Amino acid sequence: MILALLLVSFSACGDDDSSSEEDIIPEENAPDDSTAVDSTGIDSLNIDSLGIDSLDTDSVLTEKEYEGFIYIRSKGKTTVLGTASKTAKIDEQPAMKVVFDYNFYVGVHEVTQGEFGALMKRSFKKDSSDYPQANITFYDAVLYANALSKKHKMDTVYTYSRAQFAEDKSCENLVGFKTNYDVLGFRLPTEAEWMFVANTRSDDINRSIKEWVNDWKGLFADTTIENFVGAAGANGMNEKILKGSSFVEKNVPLYARGDFYTVTPLSKAEYVGFRLVLGKIENAIWFNPSSGAVTSVITPLILAENVRSLFGTYQAKLVFRNDETGNLAYINYSNAANTVVEIRDDIDSYHPDISPDGKYVAFCTGLEGVAGESSVYVRELNESGSGLVKLNVEGAAIPRWRVLDNGDTVIVFVTNPGINKSESNWEKYSTWYVPFNNGKFGTPKKLLKGSFHGGISFGRGFAVTGSSLLRATRFTNKSQNNELWYNGEQACNVSLSMDGSNRTLFLDFAGNTGATFVGKKYSVHEMLLIADSTGELVQSIKSPKGYSFDHTEWVSDKNLVVATLSNVNSAHQKIALVNVESDKIMELVEGSELWHPCIWVKSKKKVTQESSSSKSVESSSSSAIAEKFSSSEESSSSKLTGNSSETSSSSEESSSSGPASISSEASSSSENSSSSETPKSSSSSISITTSSSVAVPLILDPDSAGMYLNSSYWTAGNGLMRNNMELLWNYHDQANVVVLGSSRPLDGIVPKQFSEKFFVLNLARTPSGIYESKFYLDHYVYPHVKNLRYIILSLDYDLWRWEPQSDHNFFYSDYKKFLGYVYDKNHEYWAAGMPEELAELTEDGYSDQNGEALRENMGYWSVGACKGWGTNICNYDSTLLTSESIEMAMDTLVDLVETAGKRNIYVIGIIFPMSPNYKKTGLFACYGARRSVGDSLTKVLSGMHEKYPHFIVMDENKMGNHDYSNSMAEDQQHLCPVGAQQMTHRVDSLLMTLESNFP
Description:
By secondary structure, this protein is of the alpha+beta class. The protein has 21 helices and 52 strands. It has 3 domains: 53-293, paralog of FGE (formylglycine-generating enzyme) (Alpha-Beta Complex), CATH 3.90.1580; 298-601, TolB, C-terminal domain (Neuraminidase); 685-997, Rossmann fold (3-Layer(aba) Sandwich), CATH 3.40.50.1110.
């Protein structure tokens, strides 16, 4: 009946520009004939006005060899990126000048379907061969550029270690991806190059489709940058840049840099293509206001999945010093972006070490082997490096975290990092430890004579050092017995293993002792050497060809070593993992000067299955030697500390329990063996509670359970869904309101602004549609959110044109890419009861850089600045929403409403406000619905309340006649925080009026 009424309303009120279904253009042919380009295209450009010359014989290329490319004389000239307009997006202002010191060639048209298909061996329609190639990822464009370079016998600009493809053959990831701008080959243009051409003849380059450019998106500054090539790495959204207008969104300002939604390398659309340039940039500059200008970038070389295969967990972090800037940098391998984050500061940062809980990093300002002043600092390991505190001790250096038997987390440090060649001078130095709790230092306590900065095992009473000579000591609470190892030959980069074996790792200077053990002579730092607890050599590992080792450190309690690799020019070019069992070496990152790496791995609890519930077992060391030894040391804490305001006021306070920590070193070989890494194939014993409260034993696979994201298929939308799962599993017992739908409620409903009666989870995401919302409700929300009273659902008519079999329904196909959802499906979505450990496993799984903020805001995604509705609207064909699509969507909505009604749950359907500019068009909203259709749908759905009292429609758009002012909008279809506050207040008021219907 409802559908019949709806179809009658369509026939009664059509638009002037309405057309029959036969006139609807398929998506793949959406561009009209004006998008076809001439195969040469040179005549379509006014070459003189561009400062462009045709190809000449003095240049690298010739016109005959490279038809369709023209020469751009940009050297010494300037272009402008961004705008001075205060109404532009935050990442589009201010205006920034870019100066070129080079010339380049540019394609006069976008790469066509015929060109792309022929070179990449993809099928294409011959009658569309001259249309621009669209619907490709950034990586697809990169591979085409490399293929064209190879075709013309050039080096490739782009390098990577491995390519990953989707089922449709599109490239979804290039592991270890790097742009080598100093190589002459084909590539995507930089944003500055694109703008230089477009500023003069925008009608030629700014036409039917948007175009990929090469840059990572960053922010601008009011300055001038030479040879600007974008930000040094991906931001928290992993954003790339699109330039130009399209047949969907016309007359886009040249300074614009994106699309309706977040643009990542995996983004695809029928209105996005690319053109190429040819030319090298020998002095490329990366720039972001927060990081400044740099001449090199740090490139991750592996996926987090590789790290997990080694450690059995995604919860691993790598920290190191970027010696080019003097700052600490890190990679959080549990973060899907897999980007290098640099903590900007004016404090020189050497020898970083990550705390046992992974939250802090300690470092010093002095360098091993260099006597002089040094200070120890600790800061939180996050992008801002917040919570910076200084140990008020003169000469503190080489910090190392340890956990005492009583659970205290401490930092071991030495009073001088200088060389230890002269024993009499060296013994004037000393080794101390200081408790660290809740972001504060306690009272330092003296531990040993001499600077043992190679590592200390409290449980074994053993320590090592080596900044010239390799020394060791065995100590008790009353004595210290020093030993000189390695026949007195030079050694450095000493590290004591934390697995209880007391193996010592070090490098040498090609001495006789090492050569005798290896059986041949070798170069300085060519061999990684390992000695047993007596100082006898037991193993050597050769560095990769063309490299030597430096800055070697054991990794936690693993049989792994992290080290820098120095090339023949002594540049610390790479950081690598060395497996001491197999001698295999895995490269982690590449850069210019990467120093002092440290890897943290989350400690894994051992689980025993004695019953249906889990029991955690942690190893512990045999004695508290540190406490006993320090208490017997005369004047153990006198005259070392400075201003007491920076330390704990008493020893009792400093010995209080510290932050969450890993267990201390094992006190025996058997204990060490039991604490080894849990094999990847192992499972955890967990229990689930059924509706009858009966404990049911179950083995939960940690390799699958809660793994809702991975680096291969990370997009903003997939990251949002993963964060929704963490919210759901953590708060399913408390929530009574859930928000579902597209980016409009994601940006427009603020859970924490509701009245106290309501515990709201914003589980909306982008892209999303009615079919995804229905599935999520049936399989995840209803079975687990037992106190659910209200569903807030966006009514996005323009998104109804996407059928159930599309990327707007995550649960049609995309979910298969992530083990967690498949695991849920195989276990019937835990209908019998949610496993208690599932929330923790989800937290420990892969996440993204936005996860923390989203979880803090219960899923609300604040888009930031309020830039207004804007003058541009997204301009899809208004006839794309067909009657068949409406019928399917309506059936799904009615089913959703009926199911909720049977559960005594209200469904609040919200039509979110759109730009008032749509009133001037035939469009109701962005993605394809006629205004008459939108108006009719609103009337029909509002009338459903009579039959379904639990279904209430909030029309906040009112056909564009709403009261959401320009100051409440982010863009043409999304509210900013000011508008979200008004929207949330109105929804909250409605829910308050409905509360009387509940007991």
